[in-house]
UniProtKB/TrEMBL annotation:
It holds the Pfam family SusD_RagB. One of its GO terms (cellular component) is cell outer membrane. InterPro entries: SusD-like_N, SusD_RagB_dom, TPR-like_helical_dom_sf. This is RagB/SusD family nutrient uptake outer membrane protein. The lineage of its organism: Bacteria, Pseudomonadati, Bacteroidota, Cytophagia, Cytophagales. Residues 88-216 form the SusD-like N-terminal domain.
Amino acid sequence: MKKTLICTLIGLSIFTSSCNSLLVEDVRSQITDNYLNTPEGFETAVNASYSHIRIFYGQEEGGALSVFGTDEFTNGYGGTFMNLNFYDSGLNPRAPVLATLWDNMYIGINNCNAVIGRADKVPGLDEKVKTTRIAEVRFMRAYYYFLLVQTFGPVHISLKESEGVVVTATRSPIKDVYKVITDDLDFAIANLPATAAIYGRVYKSAAEFLLSKVYLTRAGSEAAGADDYAKAADLARKVIANTNLSLLSSYPKIFEQGAGEKNSEVVWAIQYSTDLLTTGLGNSAHLYYLAEYDRLPGMQRDIANGRPWVRFKPTMFTVMNLFDRKNDSRYEASFKFVFYSNKPGTYTIGQKQVTFAQGDTAIWVADRELTAAELAKKNYSVYPPSAYNDRIYPTLTKFLDPTRVSVQEMRGSRDFLVFRLAEAYLIAAEALMMSGKKSEALTYINAVRARAAKKGSETAMKVTEDQLTIDFILDERARELLGEYVRWFDLVRTGKLLERVKKYNPDGANQIRDFHVLRPIPQTQIDRTEGGIQAFPQNKGY
């Protein structure tokens, strides 16, 4: 069984690994500061350094910061973060979602700094183990800074543990932030093992993957290095060359829950558990993409269909124009269009009396327009694209979680697949294309597309050099990584955020401005900095 313990100390959540060789987290009671200077305390502090990433992946805040306000998704009717999609006055320095990310990333950074700073003081610690653990936390520190610099631009750099109240801070240029990130990841790559002894710990290929993405992102920034694209491609190819990793033969298999979650395509995942005592907030992404099926005739909320929070609605571009439906299996694999009755009875739909038995089709969210004659023949609720609204639309399926313990349960147990091998292929393709090596780039992008092809459509799915543009690669990333908490970052780093939102997201199109490529610095950070806004300036436009 899984057993997890959580401890809290000086703003750090200290976690132990489980007895079944999974890295998991939970909270225990207060302990003394001296515990961190023991071998056991050191290990729990290392494990704690992983925990803060859970604040982003699988939570509504992380989804809103990466999914809303893009060409992929707009808002459903629910939620408190719609300003991130509307780009209106509510997207301001006092928005709580920004402070949540900011504060938790810096708590995570301080956790990492504590481990690094105290490592040499821990008696009896094996040198090889110590070096590996430091490499792990330097990976995590790099990741926290990477999320911060992508979101906010210049941020404060702290590389030593803060043990008391700190009121001084400065915004370092993004080139300095990227230097911290790349130095940390270079150390991680040099010192992490080739494979993870415990599933969930980072290892060499995970660090190579993250650094490839860092270079790809930096290449589109003011801190760009002349060889960033070449470095990104080289690192992505190293990940692909790892013989323990391979693309699965079928796209839907990637997201099979249970034993299937730990497959050869997962480079690194954040783990969750069915044990409600140890899974914390859980992976709640299953709540956010689901249409409101449970208020329609013949339906009621159940565990199998999910609890709909109706947050993230796919844009019409996503459901109508993004996919080659004839040849690409990912369209049908990504969306749920039909709900079967779980509440038998007789209902009025339109002007007709309809009786549902258990398992009858109750809702069809159609993928095409229907004629009046076709609609008249349907004895259930039908929503063609012209009838999609902020409550009813195609549901993204990759996060659904029918293993929840109750109808109302929000905490999901599905692992969040943060790094997938298919994305390494797409990073390599983009970096090579941007380096002027389209022929080589095709090898990688066509490998992803061939895997996604319906049977017999492998040749039809392959593209040629003249089709390979940054817009095509962005479309391919959307097809492959739809809803996986990457899109806003993709559009910003490629300089396509404004163009794509204006073209494909009517809810955000009218109010998005140039300065929205960065989020506002949380007002709480400015207020608690000595010297206020003069010492810690706000981003332009806010």
